[in-house]
Amino acid sequence: MQTLPTSQLTDLVSGVRTAVNAHADWSETTELVAEQLRRHLPTPDVLTAEQRSGAPEHATSHTLHVEPDGTFSIIAVVWRPGQLTRIHDHTTWCVFGVIQGVEHEELYDADLNLLGRSDNQTGEVSGFAPPGDIHRVHNTSDTTAISIHIYGTDVTRIGSSVRRYYD
């Protein structure tokens, strides 16, 4: 399944395609894709007003683009105040950029010791490649946060980018 990119996504999709087609290792791919997301970070109106409102139960995801060959997906995630993920890791590399609000991230080691915390502000882009990607994301603010996530796979085909959850 491929969604048609809006004009805001056209340059981002093209840039990510170029980065992925460099066939670098995951760490380098993460850096190349992050550079493209910094250059072409969309605004919140890449989503409809209804999509931007989120859902009261949990963070919501909206597929913006899936590359036809399955090499990457671009997903928007909407986080209402207080919403958070469980501690988890991923099946592939991921790059994300905050387009509205603030996302609080906690990083953990393999024994679930807290390694660090960061508040990712609007306009900031970050990324990671497994291993070493155990984290939890939390909207600690009183406003809705929205982020763009680019994964190194077709997450609509595999159902999720999460490899496993930790308790």
TrEMBL record:
Cross-link (3'-(S-cysteinyl)-tyrosine (Cys-Tyr)), chain numbering: 94-151
Any coiled-coil regions, as ranges: none
CDD domains: cupin_CDO
GO molecular function, a single term: oxidoreductase activity, acting on single donors with incorporation of molecular oxygen, incorporation of two atoms of oxygen
Keywords: Dioxygenase, Iron, Metal-binding, Oxidoreductase, Thioether bond
Gene3D superfamilies assigned: Jelly Rolls
InterPro entries referenced in this protein's UniProt entry, alphabetically: CDO_1, RmlC-like_jellyroll, RmlC_Cupin_sf
Binding site for Fe cation: 88, 90, 135
Keyword S-adenosyl-L-methionine: no
Domain of life: Bacteria
Similarity comment: Belongs to the cysteine dioxygenase family.
Protein's name according to its UniProt entry: Cysteine dioxygenase family protein
Organism: Solirubrobacter ginsenosidimutans
Lineage of the organism: Bacteria, Bacillati, Actinomycetota, Thermoleophilia, Solirubrobacterales
